[in-house]
Structures are given as structure tokens and as C-alpha cells.
Amino acid sequence: MVRRIFITATDTGAGKTYVTASLLRALKEAGKEVVGLKPVAAGCEGAKVNPDVSALLEAQGLPESDAANINLYSFDAALAPSQAAAEEGRLIDPQELVGWCKEKSGSHDISLIEGVGGLMAPLTEDYLVSDWLDDMPDCEVMLVVRARLGGINHALLTLDKLNYMGRPPRWVVINDTDNVGKEMIEAHAQALTSRTSTGPITCLSYSAEIDAFDWSIVVP
Length: 220
Fold this sequence. Notes:
Rossmann fold; two-stranded parallel ribbon; about 35% helix
């Protein structure tokens, strides 16, 4: 049975790639048949391969020449995907996106599908990341929260949206992307604990120590 995990976030820069790459390495070391996909990426800014795509390739031991196997749409500008695509005279096709995700993840036991930006980031004028998730009903959801001033508000709004969709996250990861420290992390965890009954809250620091976490809480 194929298991798909969709990794979304409260906003851009929350650390989705950081979390996805670490989870990929942990699953591979545990002998799991796993693939990490970054279907939509924005912000190449002249690089041959988007940095997030490159990080996921590295975590899987794949060369940059394999980028097309884990990334469908890549745009140069660091903008919302709809805007980045418009700058290049391109459009994201939601049907193609969903079909590609299912095709690329179908031959693996576990597929990690990393979103782009926050849950409400626009992929087209009328299609958001939340719509993309809605079109993949078999995906489990992991929410990455950026710990910062205002982060609790962002997290609660995102949780409300996911709950409204009937897609509450199975896991919430609070990520210290901005190095705000232990007290801020604990405040986020305390605020979210009573509102996330579907799975554990994992608190991470933004450092190489992430690879020391026991990711068996996600996939035994």
C-alpha cells in the first residue's frame, strides 16, 4: 500500500525542506522504500536547480540530473507560484500536478510530497495549495510551524483551515527557523497542544541536530 505524506506549512521559510530532507534520510536509513517530491518550486534565481529541489535530491543520494523526477514546475523568481509562473508566461495545470504526484509516488512504499509556501499560497489565480491538498484525499498531513512573533496566530489560522477541510494534521512540527529560542518554542507548543488531538507535536531546532530526532513517530 502506497503511503503519501503531504508536508505543508504556516508560511514560506517555515522549514518544509529542512524537515522533509531529514525525514527522508531517516526513512532511508531505516530501510524504507521512500521518495521525496518537490512538485512546485519557486526561487531558482539563476541556479540550474532550485535549492529546495537540490536539498531533496541530496537527501536521497540522487544527482541534480534527476531533478525532473522529483520536480514538475520550477520557476526562477522567488514569488508566489502563480506570480512566478506569470513572469515566465507559464501556467500551473492543477490536473497535471495532481496526476504527476500520484504517478511519481505510486511505486514507493512512502512518498513525501512537499508543498510550496504556506497552505494558502496561490498556484494559479483560483487554485491554492489547500486545493492541491484537497485533490489528494489519501495524503496524511504534516504541518510545519515557523516559530516567531506572530507564529501562533499563523499556526492557529492554518489549523482552523485544515480542520475546516476535514484534513487535520497528523503531525505538527514547530521549527526554530529564526533561532528564537526555547521559551518561544515552548509557548508555541503550549498554545497548539490543546488544538491538535490527531498527533504529536515535535519541536525542532534549526541545526544539524534535526537528524538526531527519532522520526519513527511519523512512520514506524
